[in-house]
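Aim 2 progress. For 3'-5' exonuclease, the working sequence is reproduced below.
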Amino acid sequence: MIEKINLNNILFLDIETVPEEENFNSLDAEMQSLWDHKTQYQRKDAFSPEEFYERAGIWAEFGKIICISVGYFTIKGDIRNFRVTSFFGDEKKILKDFNNLLNNHFNQPQHLLCGHNAKEFDIPFLARRMIINQIAIPDKLNLFGKKPWEIAHLDTLELWKFGDYKHFTSLKLLTKILGIPSPKGDIDGSQVAHVFYVEKDIDRIVTYCEKDTIAVAQIFLRLRREDLLIDEEIIHV
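Predicted C-alpha cells for this construct:
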C-alpha cells in the first residue's frame, strides 16, 4: 500500500540523456558499424544510420547523461516542503555526485527511488553508464541477486498500469488526466540534444528535468489521494 510509505524516505528522480557524440561522423568506424547493427530493426529502410543517430541518447551504449534531477520531501509536523536539486556538467562527475547522494543519504532499507518509467529507462541507464565510467554501482541501483520484493524502486508508470504490462502512459498524459499542472516547458525530450549541443543551454535542460521530477512527485501524491504541492512548498537548492 503506497499510502503507508513515509514520503520522507523517497528520492524522486529524472534524467536527461543525449547522444554521446554530437553527430554520427564523430564516431569511429567501429562504433558507426555497431550503431548500424544495433538500430537496424528500428530503422528498417526508413532512415540511414546517420539520420537515426539523433535518437542515440536512449541507448546507454551510445548516449550519455547530462543531467540528473532529484527531489525529496521534508515533512515536519504540518509543514511540508519538496526540495529539488540537479547534477549536471561532466557525466563522470554527475554520476559520482549522484552516487555520493545515494550512499550517504538514501542508503537505508526503508529508502526508495521513484521515477516515471524509471525501472525500464532511468535506473538501467544510470547503472550502465556508471559501469562504463568505472564507478561502483550503489546498492540502490545494483539489482543482481535481489528478489523482486528487495528492489527499492517505485515507478509511477508501473503503479498506473495496475498489472497491464502492454500499456504505456506518458508523463505528460498522466499529469493531464490527473489534473496536475503540466511539467513541460518550452522544450520536450526530442529537443534536448539540440539544446545541449547546438544552443549549449544546459540551464534550460536543468529546468526541464526538474519540472519532470516535480511532476513524478505530484503523480505519487495524487495516487495517494493527497493534496498536490503548491509553488510555495517547492524549494530549489
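The mean pLDDT is 94. This observation will guide construct design in the next reporting period.
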